[in-house]
Amino acid sequence: MLDQNGQPLNLLLSRSRLIDRNIDELIGICKGVLFDGAVVQAEAEMMLKWMETNRHAADQWPANILYCRIERMLSDGKLDNNEQAELLDLLIETTGPAAHLYNEPSTSTELPLTQPPPPIEYDGRIFCATGKFITGTRDQVTGIIEERLGSATTKPTKKTDYLIIGEVGSRDWIHSTFGRKIEKAVELNNKGSLINIISEQHWVKSL
Description:
Elements: H1 9-34, H2 41-53, H3 63-73, H4 81-95, E1 126-130, H5 138-147, E2 151-153, E3 162-165, H6 177-190, E4 196-199, H7 200-205
Parallel strand pairs: 1-2, 1-3, 3-4
Helix pairs in contact: 1-2, 1-4, 2-3, 3-4
């Protein structure tokens, strides 16, 4: 069976599964790097080499973010102290802090995301963004939405179509300011609203 471009569907499915497996592997590598709570140059070089070797996954989140940032940091052949701190923050924002640092499992799966992840439409839809985003500032995220004819609000209401959660995997979301927005969306849904709660990763895939 062929798709609309004449490509075998089973081949495309196999490639999609391979990319998903590679992204899972990359996230595992990132978590391994975070295990001791620090990032050194050799680890940054190893991650960059992995992404260069697995180029078919390089356009997928979070590899597309990590690759350009790490490549820039290593462009002078040295990962200085400021870059180490920046990369550490980036990895934590991407995968969540290493669970062992808190003697408890990661809570990333406890985020009340809509399952299965819904298709994302923009024209005439209302979005609310909460948390810290790997892909840019909150204003940049809002700009991307508005470029696609969607609109953005600062807090979820019963008219909101999508709540996008940045900083997926944060163990502290339930105690944070952006956690309040998540709780509000869940409360509205419990009262009959249809707010799709989605991760930054799922949102990026729609762009």
